[in-house]
Amino acid sequence: MIEKRQFYINGQWVDPATPNDLAVIDPATEETCAVISLGDQADTDAAVAAARAAFDGWAETPVEERAALIKKLGDIYNARRDEMAEAMRMEMGAPIDLARNNQWGAGSWHLAGFLEALKEFEFEKKMGADRIRKEPIGVCALITPWNWPMNQVFLKAIPAMAVGCTMVLKPSEISPLSSLLFAEMVDEAGFPPGVFNLVNGDGVGVGSQLSSHPDVDMVSFTGSTRAGIAISKAAADTLKRVSLELGGKGANVIFADADEKAVKRGVIHCMQNTGQSCNAPTRMLVERSRYDDAVAEAKATAEATQVGPTTESGRHIGPVVSELQFNKIQGLIEIGIKEGATLLAGGLGRPEGMNKGYYVRPTVFADVTPDMTIYREEIFGPVLAITPFDTEEEAVAMANDTVYGLTNYIQTQDDDKRLRMARKVRSGMVETNGVGRVQGSPFGGYKQSGNGREGGEWGLEEFCETKAISGVPMG
After folding, report:
1. Secondary structure of residue 411 in the 3-state scheme
2. Could you tell me which of 86, 1, 91 has the C-alpha nearest to residue 320?
3. What is the pTM of this model?
4. Domains recognised in the chain with CATH numbers
5. What is the pLDDT of residues 287-345, one digit of tens each?
6. What is the pLDDT at residue 474?
7. DSSP, residue by residue, 82-140
8. Taking the mean position of all CA atoms in its chain, how far away is CA 447?
9. Which residues have a catalytic role annotated?
């Protein structure tokens, strides 16, 4: 069993001030795969103090030197791909091929995007007779989730490093192993002590301590809307900046003239990562003339979705991350049945032949109405809700009938309609006809999906303050 009780503070691996062991559970086996320690106030204070002491020197380090260290970190990350994939497989249940490709690959993709954006990023520019400067905001608390561990660590740590911020990372206590490995890589790359620090802990403990800490200038958080609200309240007393990437309940609007693969593509996308993605298209809205065919196709696609062990190669989905998540998903499936939605595929319990691990049956409901719980609540599992609509106006209203606003999806061959819809839906991102967003495109949402943007130049700006200087001409 892996024992990883230490924290990374001021360039050193240090013991917790007060040991507080926590078991890390492999969701595929329900067995302990590692032990970490949760931090307390003394550990948080030490990490923040290290970041504060390192800030001036790092902020004044030439951007070329910062970029060179980030590139070196990327080279190490690439070389240790298999280690990182295995850590994520074990801690959060990603099947090994998904862990090695998508989960690991998200980190390298974002790092390359930030280095490219950094080449063109204007830290100082002219505006009339003034100079407008972008300066690092300071000490940043980075609080990351369990569902896409390296995706979120890279979206926060790399731009913060790039613009000259120092930081304390608190990864999810459910999936800490990949972040501890990332800290090893930062150390191997040779970043100055205090630039990057890591303290394990839970939200009530280290998370709250960082959010309210007077020497933390910014909190960047990805997770549930409930936790984002709590962090915002904790941060309010010190008026620190809070950047939030929260939940979603994305609508996938399929018009009658959508391409023939639109429904199958939507189901597969919903089930990816076992449905544990904030931007998953979990509400499929289908134009009525195509509805019956779409229902049959969604049923067939879900029934063809394989569930299997995380250690085996293949395109199957794995377990959800924890017993808590498993029970929550089971409860929402049960509510969907009780409220009268038509269960097409899946349902309660584990898939056939599985009696261990937090495996959920790929589930599809049809005839879901907007008053139903499964239409409104983020389930965060492999569960899809399908609803018919009659007109474009109705589709817009239904897509926007949610407290969330992260990603919506539009499927139609009519370019004018696609653009019209994209402009009317209230979400930070809109993907159309199965085309993904480009590297460096801003990631973030409206309403209770959060605020701020991650990725590319927007991700760099997120960690900057803006300063106007008059009376000093540009050279």
Report:
1. strand
2. 91
3. 0.97
4. 2-247+449-469 (3.40.605.10), 251-426 (3.40.309.10)
5. 999 999 999 999 999 999 999 999 999 999 999 999 999 999 999 999 999 999 999 99
6. 80
7. HHHHHHHHHHH---HHHIIIIIHHHHHHHHHHHHHHHHH--SEEEETTEEEEEEE--EE
8. 17
9. 245, 278
Phi first, then psi, for residue 254 (nearest 5°) are: -110, 110
Q: How far apart are the first and last CA of the chain?
A: 60
Q: Please, are residues 50 and 194 in contact by the beta-carbon 8 Å criterion?
A: yes
H or E element: which one contains 405?
A: none
Q: What percent of the chain has pLDDT over 70?
A: 100
> Exposed e or buried b for every residue in 76-113, given b needs 16+ CB within 10 A?
bbeebbeebbbbbbbbbbbbbbbbbebbbbbbbbbbeb
> Cα(405)–Cα(438) distance, rounded to whole angstroms?
20
Render 313-378 in DSSP notation, one character per residue.
-SS-B---S-HHHHHHHHHHHHHHHHTT-EEEE--SSPPTT--SSS----EEEES--TTSHHHHS-
d(CA 293, CA 299): 10
Task: Yes or no: say if 193 and 12 are a contact pair by the CB < 8 Å rule.
Answer: yes
d(CA 375, CA 292) in angstroms, rounded, equals 19
Instruction: Tell how many helices (H) and how many strands (E) occur in the chain.
Output: 16, 21
The per-residue pLDDT for 407 is 98
* pLDDT (tens digit per residue) in 159-194: 999 999 999 999 999 999 999 999 999 999 999 999
Q: Is the distance from CB of 295 to CB of 266 less than 8 angstroms?
A: no
Q: How many angstroms separate the Cα of 142 from the Cα of each of 152, 249, 313, 458?
A: 9, 24, 32, 17
Question: For residue 279, what are the contacts with CB-CB under 8 A and spacing of at least 6?
Answer: 248, 250, 406, 407, 429
Name the token pair of 211: 């959010």
Residue 384, beta-bridge partner list: 364
